[in-house]
Amino acid sequence: MTAQYDVSVEDIEYLKVGEASLLARLYRPKGDGPFPGVVEVHGGAWIGNDRLTNVDIDQALAASGVVVMAVDFRMPPAAQYPEPVADINFAIRWLRANAERFHVDPAKIGLLGTSSGGHQGLLATMRPTDPRYMAHGDAGSDDASIAYAAICWAVADPLARYHMVKQKGIERLVEAHNAYWPDEAAMDEASPQRMLERGEDLALPPLLSIQGTEDDNLTPNMATHFADAYSAAGGNVQLEIFEGAPHAFVAKDPASADSTRAIGLIIDFVRAQTAR
Questions:
Q1: Domain containing 171 — which CATH number?
Q2: 18-36 pLDDT, tens per residue?
Q3: Backbone angles phi, psi at 129, to 5 degrees
């Protein structure tokens, strides 16, 4: 992947909640644009990491000609579901409101999410007008719609994952679930998989899903089941399976052949969705 653009990087406060200042790292191709924009939502079992987690993906995507807004959002113990999703919804609206300032095409704003960030990103994508997610005040735009989304090793069914980690005794992830979620009913209500199966009225923009076969962090075939349900509901999904790849393989080894291919797929997907 040959970089087409030099990239400028800056941190900016996009939202203040009480005393909490939420920052975004903006990766901006140097040029007049307008460029596609992507809001990037990091993983970390809902309770950890920050806007720098996916720097290798974000930098490469920006160098291909995309403005990337990698966001911090509230996490436990400061906030539980649905509050972090409201932060992400606000970030989408904030980027659209500031599109001219950052040389972004407001009609070509997408989302990228990894792991638990894939889960929260799916909620923001599929329920852009949910009043709980629109809870923050004026962002300068009331349009939180997403034109396309890419998810990597996403927790598409948090309730199924909760049952799995409890059965396996993976205490770290059990504790993460208990910190983020009020209860199992909330895990069911905010499961993208189950939202589709319930036949909810959802936004279903084109979707790229990247998943490794040696991911012991998720239930077997979670990505496949979600892709099937998304397609059955009328969505267009591109599922890319990486044989032998573990959970979060790009962050673990950004220089590997699998990571290079995965980043290339994300770049190609965004290009394809924003070419017209």
A1: 3.40.50.1820
A2: 999 999 999 999 999 999 9
A3: -110, 10
